[in-house]
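G., the chain you wanted modeled:
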Amino acid sequence: MASYYGTEVITPPSGPGLRTLTSMARWARVSSLAGQISASAVQELLDCLSDHDPLVSWQARVALATTAARLRRRARTGMPVWNGQKRELTFSGLFALLCEGLEDTDPQRRAATADALALWGYEPAVSSLVRATRDSQPLVRASAATALGHIGDKSAVASLLSALSDPSMWV
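Predicted structure as tokens:
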């Protein structure tokens, strides 16, 4: 499926092809994936969490939250899971993938994952985010603390209080 952005036709590139597009074209592509329930769309959004352009990375977080909301609605209404369905096409599967992203080797991706979990507002993310407040990178600690504040679970208060005395001014 192709979409138009200005005079540019945006087709669904995969892998390194997406990285060769302009930032605006990548942003438009990521925006078009919001809410799509397909393995390729979810993987593309996960890959874009570590995009070097912060607007593209942010849009990937928002798009993942939109997709998660759609998957959550499907789960709550009892829509069946079909045989062979990939785990990222279920709410719990996508949630697990994001929690795994908090352990990624790329600190930018870990921080973006924490930001994405904040947009979900999903309390089971608290334990993973609490661990992320002890990350070696200030950006990750700051994103995790912000996510915990957004979720608002009382069990995170001790971690948030510790974040107040973080040695980095960015946390």
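The radius of gyration is 17 Å.

Shout if anything looks off.
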